[in-house]
């Protein structure tokens, strides 16, 4: 695994803000040429520091106007696999025990009810819906200021130049 240094941290911070930043602009910010910056990005991808690059689609432009968090409890063995196939589920997290938190998007409340009755309810023993009123913050960026405090072995993760 690659040890990251201050240039990697700067690169990650820029890419978190805008992953479409041009390579030349990244190189200028790091006082490097484009080739080593490209190599750094590839190494950060290879070692899992960057998981992926993706477009974030505005769901409302496609008619998805209802959004809710749903806490479910289940004892179904293949629940995780089933949820992974539901296009309505944007995010799914396993909580403690047999509980999960899902973020569900549908066109409206009626479509949500149909989703619950037809797809979710047969798999769960209990669920509670928390409709989203207004989005306040949708994407968090990793704050590197305290990365050493969060790392179990900071000497292996981050070069001392930070």
What would you note in describing this structure?
With 162 residues, the protein is α+β, with helices and mostly antiparallel strands. It folds into two domains: 1-56, Winged helix-like DNA-binding domain superfamily/Winged helix DNA-binding domain (Arc Repressor Mutant, subunit A, Orthogonal Bundle); 59-131, Alpha-Beta Plaits (2-Layer Sandwich). The protein is 37% helix and 17% strand. It has helices at 6-17, 23-30, 34-46, 79-85, 109-120, 147-150, 154-157, and strands at 66-73, 89-94, 99-106, 126-131. Helix 2 (23-30) packs across helix 3.
Structural topology:
Blueprint: H1 6-17, H2 23-30, H3 34-46, E1 66-73, H4 79-85, E2 89-94, E3 99-106, H5 109-120, E4 126-131, H6 147-150, H7 154-157
Helix pairs in contact: 2-3
Short description:
By secondary structure, this protein is α+β, with helices and mostly antiparallel strands. Helices cover 37% and strands 17% of the residues. The protein has helices spanning 6-17, 23-30, 34-46, 79-85, 109-120, 147-150, 154-157; strands at 66-73, 89-94, 99-106, 126-131.
Content of β-strand: 15-25%
Order of helices and strands: HHHEHEEHEHH
Q: How do the strands of the widest beta sheet line up side by side?
A: 2-3-1-4
Number of helices: 7
Report the average pLDDT across residues.
Answer: 89
